[in-house]
Amino acid sequence: MSLASGAGRDPGVAPKVAWLLAATFVVAVAGLIYELIAATISSYLLGDSIRQFSFVIGVFLTAMGAGAYLSRFVGDALSGFVRAQLALGVIGGTLGPLLFFSYAWYGAVGLPLYGGLIAIGVLSGMEIPLISRVMKEIGAAEFRFENVLTADYIGALAASLAFPLLIIPNLSLMAASLAFGLLNLLVAGFSIWLFRDRLPAFYWAPWAGFTLAALVALIGAERLVSVVDTRLFQDEVILSETTPYQSIVVTRFDERVRLFLDHSIQFDSLDEHRYHEALVHPAMGLAPRRASVLVLGGGDGMAVREVLRHEGVERVRLVDLDPRVTELFSTRPDLTALNGGALNDPRVEIVNADAWAFLAEDETLYDVIIADLPDPKSIALSKLYSIEFYAMMAERLTGAGIFVTQAGSPTFSPGAFWTVEATLAATRNPQAPDGAMGTLPYHVYVPSFGDWGFVLAAPLLPDPDRDPVMPGGLRHLSPEVWRAAQAFGADQGPREVEVNSIQGHALVAEYQRGWDYWFR
Predict the structure, then answer these.
(1) 467 noted as active-site residue
(2) How many domains does the chain have?
(3) What is the tens place of the pLDDT at every residue in 304-324?
């Protein structure tokens, strides 16, 4: 008698087949979530998201291929599948906490990252071959391998949609890792129960121990996050959240407040005035008109605070990608105190959108445009410093309008700084189509960042010898500081660089080369 014909008379086979297909879906979701968690954490901690996601995906898929091959050496498919789920529950569940703890205590994540990825990939690669063998062994009628693959691919789709839309907004990366580790353990537990006639009872002991440990860790996930944050950021962590766009951490020591996005410092309240005064007041003070101002980035409201110091400002539009940042800095009292309530000023309009998409759609003309955007450490950010982006920006300036951008450090990454300047200088001038934009590079010292640079650009560049009109009450910038800011040392000065474009992204390589030279 064939297995298939025997299956037709065994009412216990159908629910087992249904469970194995459901398990295929569930384990596919968990496997891809582990991969996304690993890529996201490595991007947060190491930067360059394109590189990190590429490496993680490549290593994970290769390990899955190895796992599929190694599955042939597993003698009992059902026992192998259960053991794989137990191992995935432990390794996958601890992946997130392990990466954060390793970075916080040792400053490195390479070994746990790729060791964990290889282990998870091998175990995940075994799952489909083992499930297919189990289905054949139990006599699944009309078994079709493509049904298993379909369940697996649908699970991958569900995971890719759930990760940004449901998981990241509601769980920390540590909690997500532990939660999906628990999911693998639940798959193992239900499989042990459903196939209790084929599996020895001793599987229950390790399953119970691992599951209890996972539950305890998941319940205490916030405490684990707090321990790591305290180690990473040293000062008291007063806010720690993960949004669909980034990790947000705010720390405090006495009256000192610092903001970190994706674990990179954005400002320190002790010296942020140096950065924001240098970013805003030269452009605002040299512009003949400043009625309409656009600020790209700067969701903390510090740049807007400085803009509103000037007379004649009628409207300010702030465009920042993450609505949670602008919400925090417009509603939370200890944070609104830092920007003087600037985001609640009736002249200010907040738009939560991608800067590129906004400029592509916007038709408003502005007297001053200020780009307070993240460093171009990845291709996704480099496009906001490209000649294509600057061409859109130039079209949004009034005839005598002025644009300014933060441009990184001319000391730590001079190649990147002068690439930004060269790209702006090569941008088509909308007032003189056969000409280019005029540029004025300058830099100031900000203790939290070091020597930091900016590039001012305009279709009609103001006389650099003319001091900008500055409002009263500035804490650092003065006419003397402004004139000194335009001087560069021999090791910081102009050099031959390529123009940055969305086709080449020369800026990313220059940025990484400079910072790696100093800090890696």
Answers:
(1) no
(2) 3
(3) 999 999 999 999 999 999 999
